[in-house]
# Entry
Amino acid sequence: MTVHFQYKFSFGFYSIFQKIMERIMNINISLHAQYLSQFKSTLRFKSKPRSKFKPKSKFGSLISVGIVSLLALNISYVNAGVKEKGRTIAEEAELRDRGWQDTSANLEMMLYNKKGQSSLRKLSIKTLEVEGDGDKSITTFNYPRDVQGTAFLSYSHALKPDQQWLFLPALKRVKRIASANKSGPFLGSELAYEDLASFEVEKYDYEYLKDEKLNGEDTYVVRFLPKYEYSGYKYQEVWIDQAEYRLLKVDYYDRKGAKLKTMLLNGYNQYLDKYWRADEYVINNHQTGKKTVLKWRDYQFRTALLDKDFDKNSLKRAR
# Structure
């Protein structure tokens, strides 16, 4: 009788286990937040005085341990799926923007203080796509006179720290931006030096958060967690449209987890029947009340730029 009872119990527990595992494998990852909330509710037992609590039987204890273990396994499974889906979305966005070779553009940078007063800067930027590594770019300030000739050179990398240099014409020298200082503001704007590096998938870990409509467009919302130890951000929440995998919005959170700023990308146009570029970036700093608006013009692609156009000597002759 004992053997028969234990066999029925073991078989019954296995059936329960199998059903739970089937349920686990059919989880819709997009509902992970709601599902985790249900788990927390399940685990919220009523507290009892420790001295009075006694398990009813070893089988009851075994079931409780089994359920808790399964719930922990389920949470791990959901987390793994969330990370995998987030990375897959990021990889697709990067894949769709490969092969443009080089670009150049002009842009206007409007800086607004918290009182709404503004100042204008005019820049030009050239970018070189690098196979198997991050892009190279050189940005030159053309207006106003007090910053004219200032040039910024950036070598982005996937698996090692980016390299960046700034040429200051008043000092007639090139200054290297230290790795630990790349969270600082770029020449008075709401952009940090690290924002000026190209996007590389390997720079981040990812968490898919949800699907959401943004201005009538279906988007994925993905959390980007920087691997770079000196990043000024704890994470970024990024809205990517599901049709073309374009960045539409980014919320930046500082190292303490407080929302720092929001960037909106507006007015997308397609070039070479493939590559999407926004005409306007609007960056609002929620902590200082300041704002930066970038308006891009005169995009050109495949203009025969070479690697030598992006060496440190090119900073002094940039125009």
